Amino acid sequence: MKTALLGIGLIISFPVSLLAIAGFYRFLQLGNHMIAWTIYITFAGVVLLLFLPRAFSRWLALLTSVAGLAISLMALFQTPIADLAHFTTIVRLPWVPMLGMNYHLAVDGISLTMVLVTGIVAVSTVLFSWDIEHRQNEFFFWLLLVVAGSYGVFLSADLFLLFAFYELVIVPKYFLIAIFGSTNKEYGAMKLTLYSFFGGALVFIGILAAYVTAGSLDLDQLAQFQFAPQLQLWAFPVLFLGFAVLAGVWPLHTWAPTGHVAAPTAGSMLLAGIVMKLGAYGGLRVAMNLFPQGFHAWSNWIAVLAVIGILYAAAVALRQSDLKFVIGYSSVSHMGFVLLGLATANVLGVAGAVLQMFSHGVIAALLFAVAGRMLYRRTHTRELDALSGMNLSRALPFAAFTFVIASAASMGIPGFSGFAAEITILIGAWKTFPIAVWITGVGMVLVAAFTLRALKKSFFGEVLVQQGRVPLDSDWSEQQEISVAEKWGACLLMFATLAIGLYPKLLLDRIIPAVEAMRFLK
Amino acid sequence: MSYLELLKLASPEAIVVVTALVVLAVGLTTERASAICSAIATFGLAIAIGAVLMLPQNATLFGGMLVITPLTSLFKIICLALALFTVFLARSDRSSRNPGEYLAMLLLATIGLMLLVGSEELLMIFIGLELTGLSLYVMAAFDKTDIRSAEAGLKYFLFGSTASAFTLFGISFIYGMSGTTSLAAIGQKLTSGPIQPLLAVGIVMTLIGFAFKIAAAPFHLWAPDAYQGAPVPSAAFIASGSKVASFVVLGKIVLVGFAPLHGSADWHAMVAGWSPVLAALAALSILVGNLVALVQTNVRRLLAYSAVAHSGYTLLGLVAGGRSGFSATLFYTTIYAVTLVGAFGVVALVRRETGGDDFQNFAGLSSRSPLLTGCMSIFILSLAGIPPLAGFFGKFYLFGVTLGAGGNHGLLWLVALALFGSLISLYYYLIVLKVIFVDAATQTSVMKVDLLSRISLILLALLVLFLGITPEALVGRIIASLT
Fold first, then answer.
1. Which of A49, A445, B80, B326 has its CA 20 to 30 A from that of B176?
2. ipTM score assigned to the predicted complex
3. A89 pairs with which residues across the strands?
4. What's the pLDDT tens digit per position in A311-358?
5. Which residues, other chains included, contact B315 with Cβ-Cβ below 8 Å and sequence gap of 6+?
6. Nearest chain B Cα to A199, which residue?
7. Of B423, B416, B391, B421, whose CA–CA distance to A205 is shortest?
8. If you count DSSP H runs as helices and E runs as strands, how many of each does chain B have, helices first?
9. Phi, psi dihedral angles at A93 (to 5 degrees)
10. In chain B, what percentage of residues exceed pLDDT 70?
11. CA–CA separation, A188 vs B302, rounded Å?
């Protein structure tokens, strides 16, 4: 009955949201401005969730996130590539004119890619939270708030606006984890929030330094402004490090594994899929673009931190016994690639970093979905040793299939987006830091090692119990099957990683011109 | 000048005086004093707001004793509005046995605030301080059944009268050095350059008196007990109205009266003057307030220590100086006052329903009253500086102005310290919210919230949200009024 309802709902919600968007498109003559509606629709969903009765909440969340994804897809295919080559203004309204603040949204290939991954992860996150019963309204309220704020960050062209959206994302994460989380949730939530806010404070100082020096908050104008070299030398590291905290830079990454483990599945998916990208995106869009000289002075150090992060996190992941910790550390390791790509300061490296943000967003969401939702909800354990005895590949074939795909994508097997992104980064890095590429090669072996270890232990371990039974869960029979919602969510993510893996040109065509327009390139 | 004209220019104050007397008389004679007196007070305050709106743009009486400018009018309205919300709070508090006298005291304190805001002359300012102070001492000690209220009143009185003595002493020095008590004239008499020792004594002593009023460390010791022990409406008014007016006056004194002696608080480039003094007060308040707030388990006491920290932030704008610095300070103190009145409103209701305001009384509030939870979250998150609430814009404006003021980012140390303080503060604010959202409730019954409280809390919460999304509405007015 429930699955039938879900199927009908899904079938209805797609055309309804498409119709709604077509309506906006038609009546408001939005044209290229359409993508700004990702923000408005999501915020509208957030507000509506507060007032609608509980029964509607998950449908509303689904509708909202699907609408966001549909808009970003339409923008991807309809916006001419030439328009995405530079940060094209969508909306520009005076906000607090006396202080130079504008409500200014803009889009280019980089933003569009990030909006797209936000949409994809948001939809799958809602699908993987379909059976949340406890305080449902509240759950989807916080969840959509994170999504809405992220859309806002990716589309902001005004520093104040960008920072407001950036800070807006912090508190909902706390509630998602502290209310709905599991293992050590209050500690994990607080640690994550304070780290984020610490990064935010550093960003705040950097933004203020740019603001009071240039007298403007507009990213276009600031990107033209020549900041004094002394200012760049201290302002860049402050600003970049502030953003990089959220991107999980070593040694400020420790919030990520504990946060992921404490978070509910949806929280982990959002964190790894979207929130960590906010940091990397901010570093690229704000820190590097505003202070190019500061960036060049410090880029070697960023590369060093990135490589340490890749190796260290991979090595730690190899020794973890909790599946979520493995994935949490793998996130840190993969985000190391993003930072390495950014540090190269050439087109290929940076474009690869943006592609890796997309790719890792999708893959990490998939991994967490399997570990947190498909496995944990049914087995009530994430300990690899306990899982290995359960013969899960037989009991949950779909989960096993998904996890194999996700692992392959995570390891960087050709054909998946991870490969396309990481190879682009490494080619870029070869020009700037050849030694780093060698060391990173070792890192990639480690990544493959811990991924295969997790895969083998969780799904393909020695069979100790009778076939097809998971003994730890008393109400196993009711939840035996992977639900339709989970299948849809997993398929969406798998499709995304495969599609970009097989045809990375779709995004790279839009990313590369946008990167070329930035002024920090060597 | 005819008396009629004087009465016209002082009509808002006169209206509040009459209201106070009427409320006092009615409170003595009627049985159902609570409802009637509240209604009269509300009505009087509303008329006074109307009278402020009718005032001329600019006027000066008796050499600056009573000044009318767009700035004074704006802040008279803000003080009256804060008093109005305090009346609503007092109405739903219902603990007081003599509502007429209580409201009369509140109205008298409001007159003191209006005098403070509307004067540019030291003697008048002192009278305003005393009128406010004496009324607030009584209000703090008003709950005769509660020993903590007596403690709050006594502490507030002892600290307050000492601080007043300091201020009066300082004022006498300044009068001795400059030969005048009018701020504008003092500003012209004083010359920049090395400060004479006597003048330094005068300035520091005057500032100490105000540091007490705004509860800046190390003159904050009365605040925790007063906030925790006093009846909730009194605490709310001490924390909001009194603070707003004090910041307005403090800003006028230092920026107009002591203008030539600004000095500099830049890192490695300090110049003697009042701004290093204020910078030291600010830094100390931010550190002490935030660090001590970490260990509190009573919401009101926690709010008191956070108030100390917020005084520190607010002082940053004055340290920066200039019109932009002053406007940032004024904006921040206003939104802070609005937020705090709201937060105390929630505390009052929780106290009425659960009998206390410790953390355990707030446990599981989210399951007992979505309205109170939503409002409290907005107030607390605004205090923490989370967008899109007013506190976020306030901090951005304040810190931006401060960083821009010192030459070559000289005030970066202060801004960095303030941001560090905000980071600490997020922890204890989140703990309050955690108690509300995550902890299990001891009772499960739904909390009753009366209509008046409901409306005023929603209004305040919407105001905090509105000022965060469109700060232009208030910032524009403040900047325009400062020209």
1. B326
2. 0.90
3. A106
4. 999 989 888 888 888 888 988 999 999 999 999 888 889 999 999 999
5. B214, B216, B278, B279, B281, B282, B285, B329
6. B423
7. B416
8. 22, 2
9. -125, 140
10. 98
11. 23
The shortest CB-CB distance from B422 to any of A168, A201, A208 is to A201
Strands A88-96 and A101-107, bridge-based pairing: antiparallel
User: In the prediction, which pLDDT does A134 show?
Assistant: 79
pLDDT, average across residues B122-147: 90
The answer to whether A205 contacts B397, with C-beta atoms less than 8 Å apart, is: no
Tell me which chain B residues have a C-beta less than 8 angstroms from the C-beta of A178: 434, 437-438
Which one of A164, A179, A209 has the shortest CB-CB distance to B388?
A: A164
Residue pair A239/A291 in contact (Cβ under 8 Å)? The answer is yes
Q: Does residue B102 have a pLDDT over 80?
A: yes
Question: Amino acid identity of A357?
Answer: M
Which pLDDT value is given to residue B326?
92
Q: How far apart are CA A17 and CA A46, in angstroms?
A: 16
Side chain identity, residue A335: M
Closest CA to B190 of B99, B98, B256: B256
Per-residue pLDDT tens digits for B9-45: 889 999 999 999 999 988 888 777 778 888 999 999 9
pLDDT tier for residue A393 given thresholds of 50, 70 and 90: confident
pTM: predicted TM-score of the whole model, two decimal places: 0.91
Write the residue in B409, B423, B434 that is nearest to A198 by C-beta. Answer: B423
Tell me, what amino acid is at A151?
Y
- Counting Cα atoms < 13 Å in the Cβ hemisphere of A508 gives 21
B interface residues, A as partner, C-beta within 8 Å: 366, 381, 385-388, 392-393, 396-397, 399-400, 403-404, 409, 412, 415-416, 419-420, 422-423, 426-427, 430, 433-434, 437-438, 470-472, 475-476, 479
Give the start-to-end residue ranges of the domains of chain A: 26-470+479-516
> What string of DSSP letters covers A47-71?
HHHHHS-GGGHHHHHHHHHHHHHHH
User: Contact A292/A522 with Cβ under 8 angstroms?
Assistant: no
Cβ neighbours around B476 below 10 Å, total: 16
CA A96 to chain B, closest CA, distance in angstroms equals 5
pLDDT at B469 over 50: yes
Residue with tokens 């932009």: B324
Closest-approach residue (CA) in chain A for B367:
A135
Contact check, Cβ <8 Å, B426/A205: no
Of B434, B471, B475, the CB nearest to A186: B434
Q: Can you read off the two tokens belonging to residue A3?
A: 């699955």
Q: How far apart are the first and last CA of chain A?
A: 60
Task: List the domain boundaries for chain B.
Answer: 1-260, 262-483
- Averaged over B353-362, what is the pLDDT? 86
For tokens 């097989």, name the residue.
A502
